[in-house]
Amino acid sequence: MEQYLTVVQEGDANGNGMLLRLDFPSGLVIHALPTPNEYGGEWDLGPTWNYLVEGDRPFLVDTGRWGTGGALMKMIVQLGPGRSPEFVVLSHGHEDHDGGLAEVTAQTGAEVRAHAAYCLLARPYPGLAPQEYKRDFPAKCWHCFMPESFYGPNCLGYHRELQDRLVREVGDGRQSLGTDLESRHVPGHCPDSLAVEAGDEAVLVGDTILPDITPWPTGRFMYKLTAPVLGERYPEAGQLYGLPRYLRSLKELRELGQARPGLAVLPAHRLYYQGRFNFLDLAGRVDELLKHHVERCADLLRILKDSPKNAEALARAHFEDAKLSGPGMNMAKNEVVCHCELLMDAGDVVRNADRLWEATGSGNFERFIQEI
Ligand SMILES: [Zn+2]
Ligand SMILES: [Zn+2]
């Protein structure tokens, strides 16, 4: 995709402040607009890359994290007249993607479109919330384990702003967004994840595929909390959640990459990072991610062959200590449980009477992953 790229404005080493323009042979123009994404912790995804697609009608994919919608709008104004987005498509419901929504829609009047699961999960249901303090939290945040020191400054205002927002539902599978523009439901990283395909020229993959980073899947165990909200439409956890569902989405994208080898892949983080562009080969990157998950399953199963363990003990044995400080432990446990769910599907582990993960002695997971 290098040949289509113009750096309109230089930014810092991680892409903050940069403005990029992609001119494709069909005449399609996509602007890449990074918004800052810093939480003050050690973990750095880099800015959120939002994209303005100049289709039949200009539309925006994502709006950055809470508090950055204004900065995003300034960039769009800087691009010149006629670029105001008529609608916004959300790649998924994480706060670093829909956080700027209120500011963007206040300035543009743009319609908001998101997957059906987003429409259901982005609302609070006070009577169903799992804890008293989450009564006003949208259902998508019910599973969140961050302490008040985090959600106080980062999330409460965000929840207030996005409550009762009207969102037009995008259905499962592939849906038209204009001529040669389609959304595709790719659940796994998040139950409402969408990719946006622009003909045979580009695919916007949100957080489903990233350079450098292996995106984390959302575990099937999280479905239990949201089942009262999602159950009528999605009666099974595996339709929206879990590592197997994520891997299936990856494989669908790999097929797309194989069918269209020159496809420009536009991720929502790290398009540019540490002084360099990350140009991805879609099929090749999917293969790397699949390999990563096979290896992680293999290592977890090896650890479980010593003795049955709970998620925390598994996380301690599998990850380096540095990854387990602060919220790292909860993230590591999520990761471990997602893989154990898959190993259980493959018949390689069971949950024993003490609720510990226990190896069965088989090693079917690799074939299981191949057959997903
Ligand atoms: Zn995300
Ligand atoms: Zn993200």
Which key phrases capture this entry?
alpha+beta; binds zinc ion; 372 residues; eight-stranded mixed beta sheet; five-stranded mixed beta sheet; Metallo-beta-lactamase, Chain A; 17 strands; Arc Repressor Mutant, subunit A
Describe the structure.
The protein is of the alpha+beta class. The chain folds into 2 domains: 2-280, Ribonuclease Z/Hydroxyacylglutathione hydrolase-like (Metallo-beta-lactamase, Chain A); 291-371, Orthogonal Bundle (Arc Repressor Mutant, subunit A), CATH 1.10.10. Helix content is 34%, strand content 20%. It contains 11 helices and 17 strands. The protein has helices at residues 69-78, 95-98, 101-108, 116-121, 148-162, 223-230, 243-259, 282-306, 311-318, 328-345, 365-371, and strands at 5-9, 19-23, 29-35, 48-54, 58-61, 87-89, 111-115, 168-170, 174-178, 181-185, 194-198, 202-206, 264-267, 272-273, 276-277, 349-351, 357-359. The chain has an 8-stranded mixed β-sheet with strand order 1-2-3-4-5-6-7-8. A 5-stranded mixed β-sheet has the order 9-10-11-12-13, with no helix packed on it. A hairpin with a 5-residue loop joins strand 2 and strand 3. Helix 9 packs across helix 10. The longest helix has 25 residues, at 282-306. The protein is globular, with a radius of gyration of 20 Å. The protein starts with a strand and ends with a helix. 45% of the residues are buried. The mean pLDDT is 95. One zinc ion is lined by residues 45, 48, 94, 96-97, 207, 268-269.
Residue runs with pLDDT of under 50 for 5 or more positions: none
Give the CA-CA distance, first to last residue.
30 Å
Please tell me what the overall shape is.
Answer: globular
CATH superfamily of the largest domain, by name, is: Ribonuclease Z/Hydroxyacylglutathione hydrolase-like
Number of strands: 17
Counting structural domains, the number is 2
Percent helix among the residues?
A: 25-40%
**Sheet with most strands:** 8 strands, mixed
Category from helices, strands and their pairing: alpha+beta
CATH class of the largest domain: Alpha Beta
The overall average pLDDT, rounded, is 95
Order of helices and strands: EEEEEHEHHEHHEEEEEHHEEEHHHEEH
Strand order, sheet with most strands: 1-2-3-4-5-6-7-8
Count of discrete alpha- or pi-helical segments spanning 4 or more residues? 11
